Amino acid sequence: EVQLQASGGGLVQPGGSLRLSCAASGFAFGMYPMSWFREFPGNERDWISTINPDSSAIYEEAMKGRFTISRDNAKSTVYLEMKALEPEDTAVYYCAMSLARGKGTQVTVSS
Length: 111
Prior knowledge:
Layout: E1 3-7, E2 10-12, E3 18-25, E4 34-39, E5 45-51, E6 57-59, E7 67-72, E8 77-82, E9 91-97, E10 100-101, E11 105-109
Parallel strand pairs: 2-11
Antiparallel strand pairs: 1-3, 3-8, 4-5, 4-9, 5-6, 7-8, 9-10, 9-11
């Protein structure tokens, strides 16, 4: 069974940073591209970034520079470093691959 579990969310002040993790199991992690998305109330969703098995990555244009995706194939984990966070970044963040999406982690940016 494919399982993806995001963690690392929380409450952060505007301008702050967070590092999200997504632990994967149930598939050959090192062979699959992994992505991060975020979902807002009302189910609007943004794609953030995708990282390939070789760690090459692509980003949604608006996310470049503030968000950095990375992965550790030995740990079956994908990460999302976020900086200069804004209240508009408040959302549930989750990772996904072609077979499944994971449970998300809430990120709230507020003073």
